[in-house]
Protein 1
Amino acid sequence: MAKSNFPTIEPVADSTATSLSARYQLTTGRAWRSTTHDMYIGSASELTAAGIVRPEQLPGVEGLPPTGVTFYDGKMVSRYQRCKHDEKHLNIVRRGRGFLVRIGVTAQVRVEREAIEKRQTEIWSLQYEAQDAAERAKAVSDREIRLKKELAECALHVIPQSAGDYQSGLIDDWHRHAIHMRDSISPDMTRYKIGDYEIDSFGCGFSLDESDMIEFDALVDEMKELLTNAKVRFNAQKQKQTIANCQIAIAKGDDKFQRVLARLI
């Protein structure tokens, strides 16, 4: 077979490029490239009309293998022969009713494309890292929103509705603290009740004198009496603001609210 000059494909810069690959891409939409080759897929008529191959180079014609053929510098190369994949390399493989054509590029073009590919890989890596960081930040934010929602629901549940409720809450809190304190100063195992649970505590080996414990019990009772008879002040505006803040936190933690917010953003 006589030596022939195969087309050297220039990089496609934009849609107005006049290179062979650009024209074929615009015509068929089936041209792409790797770092080592320009590749085309199409029918025999499309590929020959575009000047990518000649009819006598297509697999299946007289003297050529039926499924695929490789040329180097215009000469057919056996599948068992090695050849360089440079601008003199041409590989044509049958694909269904058409063909896949791979044309090698010059060393300079390969270096340029490898640099572009490396830079693109770096960009993709940075984009992936940025996306991953954003997703992790969003996950943290979502957890904080859910936590605030749960805390707000608890806060609304325990907000006192009257001065009596407020005082009862203070007395209950003081009673719980006093029990723990009483346990820590007692020399013996103490069994006490919190809610529906009875808890045993075995002490730490240290304790206060019995006379001091009696005085402690008297102070506990005195503190309860003080809380029971104390004058209570009420800031309605403060409570209103607290309830509003809780409702906002609960709304933000609602899935439906988040979906609406995502659409608005």
Note: Strands lie at 31-33, 37-42, 68-72, 75-77, 89-95, 98-104, 190-194, 197-201.
Protein 2
Amino acid sequence: MSIRFHHVVAFGALLSLAAGLCLAAAADDTTVYRLTDTARGSFMGHPCLELILEPPMGGRTIQVAVPNKNPTGGYDPSAVVTDVIKEVGKGGLVRLHATISGGTSVVGSFGKYDLKPGEDAPHGFVFKSSAKKAVGKEEHLVLTVSKYGQEANITIPNVKNAAGTLAPEPGMAALVDKLKPDTVIEVDAEQSGAIVIAQAIDLYVPPVSGTFEKLADTTIDGKKRPALVVTIAGESQTLPLAGRVSSDGRWIPDTKLLAAIKTLKPGAAVVVSIRERAGQKIVRDIHPTPAETK
């Protein structure tokens, strides 16, 4: 299956950027890839440098030929390409525009992709703009965000305000109003048909290192919520888990987050993402440090 990114794409397509991406289908586009390796190949009957690339979030690798400086000469790849390879190294992100020549994918333009801090986080996106747009029968506040150079629209849900009229959810709308272009944010969202609806939006904050103590309960607004007890910078903290309120008013913790915490043993070194919502610090994500996963 081939995917082309000429314009704003759906959230699901954006997150599955890796799936089935075919360079031939994207030959007229500039696309971001991860450089996995280089090799010697052949182009127009002559030896050439070959790039081995994969989509940023993983997927099928592709091979792209680098034309030699002298098309009829020997192996002599473009210095523009080799300089970028030296700069980014294996595993680095590159921006590629390719063409098809004689049935072979060939580098047209090639450069380093400047990744913004937090953009590669699981829910990380680069804020581009916001505007009020008609979505179905209602007007909504809609964000345009990007990840690895590809764009998507995310809709802020409407809720009834004090006057009884529908308006963008005030907490998210207030945050969006303060955002400047190219700010990295984290978005929890769900897809409803062709519309992507935000459930929570946070400014990206780098994770912190800590030591896992235990999973416990804490009480907020008179209701029990599961919480992480973790030592950070020598201080023990009890932090409720991210989640959502059910239709009957119960707090439902993020299932993946809860499952990840249940695999940890007391004393494990962890990396924790903490966010503040409605004046309350919460745990958004947690995973063992690399040393703990060996």
Note: Confidence is low (pLDDT under 50) at residues 1-14, 16-28.
Protein 3
Amino acid sequence: MRTGFPALLCHLMRTRFTHPWSLLITILVLVSCNKDNRQEFFQLHHRVDFEIVPGLNTFDTHIYTKNLKSLLEENLDAHGRTLSEVVAIEAYQATLSSKFEDVNLDFIDEVSVHIYDLFDHNNKIEFFYREQIPFNDKTSIDLLPGIANIQPWMENEFFGVEIRLNYRQVTPSLIEMKLEFDLRVLGE
């Protein structure tokens, strides 16, 4: 049995183009796919510590903010690169957990992490998220990376991180939390 693109073309020809646009759409989809030719220079690792207090409700979005120092300039120097060589900085991976990874985080329903400019708090963008986190005994939550280029925020010496949490249950106790995230610095 044939597989792949030739099999698809044969199938479309045998069905006498019952959907005349299907061949055109298939070709356009295949032609529009491009390989990402950007090179990863290095990764930036950051950590944010914060506390969740007991008794927080399930109706509000609870926001935790932290100011961080950008590690971009020091890493560029250490790797022999310049800022002009960087074409994008993207989210790579992130994990939210309790400080000692000993607390069940089933009470968390959704997580959204934004980066913002310290001088303009309205200038922000989501770069990690996780929606409708499934029920299970977990002590950490892996977040999904967003598709935003966050280079403009990382070029500043300092930037802000805003963690937005929605709960499915009232928070059980005082919990020391940490968010660890990695960013990819990309160039041509």
Note: The mean pLDDT is 90.
